[in-house]
Amino acid sequence: MKKISIFGVEVQSITLSQGIEEMKKLLHKGAGNTIYTPNTEIVMEARKDSSLCKLINQGDMIVADGIGLVIGSKLRGHPLPERVTGFDLSMELLKIGAEKGYSIFFLGGKPGVAEKAVENVKKDYPDLKIAGFHHGYFKGTHTGSPDHLEEKEVLQSIKASNADILFVGFGFPKQEIWIDKYKNILGTRLLIGNGGVIDVLAGEAKRAPKIFIQLHLEWFYRLLKNPSRWKRQLAIPKFLYYIVRDSNGVREIENRNEEEGFE
Asked: Does residue 26 contact residue 191 with C-beta atoms inside 8 Å?
């Protein structure tokens, strides 16, 4: 499968439907498979931080969750087919879990939010196996207190749950760093860093209306709802500025997984 490097971040050139099939394959590969969903803001951060870029690129599935990345890839002649969001992949994992019998653990949000998310998910997917849930407000690697007792208790809870899929909603880059550190000790088949998905499932946050999504204006909707985000939204014009200036910022690369015999 083709990959496109955008300022060093290697995203797979896939559609949502292809991403769904890719997730199904990962669920059959054993434990410790990871999904990262970089957007324009994340790529700009990784551009400045080589260790963060390397961490993201170690993911088993890396998709472009940002319309800016799609636009930038087209400007440089290596077009990504479409934006593939972490939210959409997460919703598909709920469906796959319910259909195939995979269990899911929800980790993230304020106290009580993950529990509410589970309650709502069970209404839509009564057959889905819930391995467990825990809020993200414990002391651990993601809060600057690695190996804290609270974190050890959460890790043990996840291990004991025998979860097949783990939703980690700490926000970038905390969730990616946390996943990378513990992916090989939890026994979980698939781990996905999906930001505010748990908040949305709990009803604590709302996704942009469909018309904004269709017009690729989710960023504008979030800005309207929260004007204080304006500095964060500058990442998009900055990204496009650097794309125009740097002829080598976007390039096609070979998929290392395919070289190693995986599909």
From this structure: no
* pLDDT computed for residue 211 by the predictor: 75
Q: How many residues does the chain have?
A: 263
Provide the mean pLDDT of the chain: 90
Distance from C-alpha of 158 to C-alpha of 133, rounded to nearest angstrom:
8
Q: Which of 39, 44, 36 lies closest to 69 in space, CA to CA?
A: 39
pLDDT tens-digit series, residues 31-64: 999 999 999 999 999 999 999 999 999 999 999 9
Q: Which pairs from 219-224 meet CB under 8 Å and 24+ separation?
A: 219/67
- Pairing state of beta strands 9-12 and 3-6? antiparallel
Counts of helices then strands in the chain (DSSP H, E):
14, 9
Q: What percent of the chain has pLDDT over 70?
A: 87
Mean pLDDT, residues 153-171: 98
Which pLDDT score, from 0 to 100, does residue 263 have? Answer: 42
CA torsion 121-124-129-132 (nearest 10°) is 10
**How far apart, in whole angstroms, are the C-alpha atoms of residue 72 and residue 20?**
24
Give the bridge partners for 130, in sequence order: 104
Buried b / exposed e over 123-162, threshold 16 CB at 10 Å, is eebeebbbbbbbbbebebbbbeeeeeeebeebeebbeebe
- Helix-helix angle 40-48:50-57, to 10 degrees: 130
Establish whether the linkage from the previous residue to 237 is cis, with ω within 30° of 0: no
